[in-house]
Amino acid sequence: MTKPELPVGTELGKSYEYGLDVNIGTHASPNWIPFRRIFNFLFTPTPTTHDATTYDDKGSTASMVGGWAWALAFASQVNRSASTGQYLPEVEALRQRTLPAAVGSLAEIEVRWYHKPANGTPNPVDAGQGIATVAFTRQNTGPEGTVEVWNWTLTGVGSYIPIANPFTGWDVTTPAVTGATPEGAAAGQQVTITGSGFDGVTTADGVRFGSTNASGYVVLNSSTIVAVVPAGSAGSAEIKVKNSAGTSAGFPYTRGA
Fold it and tell me: How far is CA 190 from CA 20, 57, 121, in A?
């Protein structure tokens, strides 16, 4: 018997080809940041079943799936600032959900996970998003000075939703805005935004003037975006650009009426 052939162009998956983001904003105005230095990622969907056995099953059991529970487990290295001692923001965001005051919605956080291949195109539908509670334990506690690792368990609050894969490639970096012209543009007028890391800017809130999404925008290349100023009052409206890697620092801008 010969070994069955795979389709031409097939790529064998690797154990490390998943990513996880944490929302440190709100559900209405998300600010997704990647959880860096993770490993041992495991997503577990579990069916919630109900007994549906009848006489027609002739003594055999029959179950009906009424819904799906889910959980995420992973480990991460725990990096912290040498100057402030603070953990990375994604680590701190999860840790805050485990403090004594974290009850009710304060114990919950929104996360998303997705296929993140080393090479080739990511699976466009292998991605999910949901609300979870958080638990963690320290893995390395001995005196030998091994790398600090925390084991995380995220337990779904309700079902998760399938989403379009937000991963756009390994070369995507957090945007930086260095210029915006002309100054004083009013609602409906165009502003040319310059900087870097504009690859992967695709969402409705990818360009913001103050707290308001641009009325529209076109990414010309990795360093140039043309955006339309949204409705609003004259005055300060710092510009921020966001992609899957993160959100730029605000660039000072004064808009016209």
Answer: 35, 67, 33
